[in-house]
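[audit] Reproducing an earlier prediction to check determinism. Same input, same settings, fresh worker. If the tokens differ from the archived copy the diff job will pick it up downstream; this log only records the rerun itself.
[audit] input (232 residues):
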Amino acid sequence: MSEKKKIVFLTGAGVSAESGIKTFRDANGLWEGHDIYEVASPQGFESNPELVLDFYNQRRRQLREVQPNEGHKIIAKLEESYEVIVITQNVDDLHERAGSSNVLHLHGELRKVRSTEEESIVLERFDDVNLGDFCPMGSQLRPHIVWFGEEVPLMDEAMDITQEADVFVVVGTSLEVYPAASLLHFVPKESPVFIIDPNRHSDLNQGRINVISKGGSEGMKDLTEILTSSSL
């Protein structure tokens, strides 16, 4: 039996938006009504840790009330025919809840927390986190989120995965957030790239770049048809 081809997805906020999770940054530059640097930077946490903890508590509560959408489910179902790896900029767990078994969270995970002193101490957390909640070593817990100004620790692993892609798919992200957007440069030259984005025009197709000008779920349906009808 031939080895399954490897499809690598790079997913962003647009995938989860269909489930009711607001995109990271609205047109006015705010995230859920907050200046993003107030709630997504080490300086913001140092200045007002209670505000930051409460902000992520609310995001965690919201996550309990939403479900994976068709786009998440289609990505998971592709595992029946392909080796699928999802590299996501999203901090929710909707890919996993849809059934995806191999997900790399570049920007952290909402349902995990870590020590403010030792980054390697990471714990599952489904309820609220408050000032005075400590890790086993005695330091304050913080969201396990990569904030502005912090390094993306899984970036090297993401680059390695991308370099082995037989097919690379971008969905739900505008490719404006770095370093994640730079992954496109690590796709093997012989591997096709599909960009699913309603704001891009299909006449931008060039070489191996294929644009599907639709939203996440509808675009994923088109992608599945293309994969099925080709030798990919």
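[audit] rerun output stored. Observation attached for the diff report: The first strand starts at residue 6 and ends at 11.
[audit] end
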